[in-house]
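User: structure tokens for this one?
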Amino acid sequence: MSFIRPEAARGILRWVEPVIGAGVLALLIRLILLRLPEGSVFGWLALIVSVPVGLWLRAALGTALAARQSPAPGIVVIREGEVGYFGPEYGGFVALDDLREVLIAPPGRHRDAAWMLRAGMVDLVIPAGAEGADALLAELTALPGFPDLDAAATLRREDAGVRVIWRRRRRAISS
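Assistant:
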């Protein structure tokens, strides 16, 4: 028997990794401020270790912010450079190299948030609450200049309009 409601437990567990990352980064910053002015090896080591810990914290924040709120139908499949969605009415696969735009339709009064992946002739709409959609944000960070924290915030924001999160820059043709 649990004294914590399942929804509350999921909410707490969603933020465990960012809290641990912030705590580790705070300890490293304290060590840097205390030891680096002395020229200590520990200060330099803490400075070096703080970079990957900061990147880990950023990824953990993005994952926590983008965590799904309500379940939606369908399954998201991610494999080497490709995103797939199997839904009750539609589905398909899109290669990350073929993507032209990534849009997000934020949650509204009558709909849940959804990812919209545009790749030439193929448009893939993936509900943010679909099984496996949590990993989609981490996969899309491989795109050049993808704003992961902005995308995570847009998934939770309740606006009326669809927002372009990322657009591929056209390659210059050299002669």
